[in-house]
Amino acid sequence: MIDAFSRQQIAQAIRQFSIGRISNYQYEQRVSACISTEDAIVQRFMSDAEWITDDDEFSLKDEQLLTAQEREENARIILFLRSNLEYRWPEPEITTLSWSYITGASCFLLTIILAQYGTQRFWQATLGTVILVCLWTHHLRNKRKKHEQDALIKASGGDKSVWPFFNHEEYRQALARPIYLAGPR
Questions:
Q1: Has this prediction a pTM greater than 0.85?
Q2: Any alpha helices (H) in the chain, and if so which ranges?
Q3: pLDDT tens, position by position, for the chain (185 residues)?
Q4: Domain boundaries, the chain
Q5: What angle do helix axes 40-48 and 4-18 make, rounded to 10 degrees?
């Protein structure tokens, strides 16, 4: 289901944040205001908007300007949001974060248990080994999940280079019907 109003709000927020008119906190507030939608691309931006406010408040000005590649990607995202195309990408894997918590909690508990029953030198060696094993296991799982996600995308016929458009044909069609700077209609 396409939620044109929420898409327009997010497109405006991306556009204003990209040129430094609003801060990262203002961007997150505007995206979060679209919370009651069923549109998959809007939900994707709501979940991705959280990372941007993990830092101090800032605007993209001076030393924090976007690169040419980032500007091109933002323009493509805005073009998609202003189109009437359905978002067709598979949902990203969400279990990685919960697996991180499980792995971290397991390592922490194992370290506490070993600290209670081991000597100082044994405890240090075991702690280092446990941390390395947990990190390596987490890395392998993430690598496998990324490979599975890439295989799913490849099997579905999507092209990551034109995300959020699904393929070059959708992108070309949207470029042929621009929303901004299209002249009188």
A1: no
A2: 4-18, 24-32, 40-48, 68-82, 95-117, 120-156, 168-176
A3: 788 888 899 999 999 988 889 988 888 888 888 776 788 888 777 766 556 556 677 777 766 778 889 889 989 999 999 988 998 887 765 555 556 667 667 767 776 776 666 666 666 667 777 777 777 777 777 778 777 777 776 777 778 889 889 999 999 999 998 776 655 55
A4: 4-89+160-176, 95-156
A5: 40
